[in-house]
Amino acid sequence: MFGDMMNMMGKLKETQQKVEDTKKRLDTVLIDESSNDNKLKITLTANRTIKSIDINDELLEDKEQLEDYLILTLNKAIEKATKVNEAELAAVAKEGMPNIPGMDLFK
């Protein structure tokens, strides 16, 4: 029994390291999103750090329109990045979890 516990603790530590490695790797995964008319383009990492924003000069003439574009496009980009982030981290966590009956948390 003690050996099983030590084995589980080792596996848990290994999984924690894999999660940290995955978080670092997600800093290099880029998500691109643009407005429907391509007047605004945003790139962010899967960890939701904004890397670039490209704004068409036409949008600079109307502050309210630019704000609307930024809100809509940033929210779409963040939603995409969050899905990628959660899927990657869930896959690593599921891989490292011991098979305990009734603990199907990551199905």
UniProtKB/TrEMBL annotation:
GO terms for cellular component: bacterial nucleoid; cytosol. It is found in: Cytoplasm, Nucleoid. The keyword Coiled coil applies. GO terms for molecular function: DNA binding. InterPro entries: YbaB-like_sf, YbaB/EbfC. Its main location: cytoplasm. Transmembrane segments: none annotated. This is Nucleoid-associated protein ICJ85_15220. It comes from Aestuariibaculum marinum.
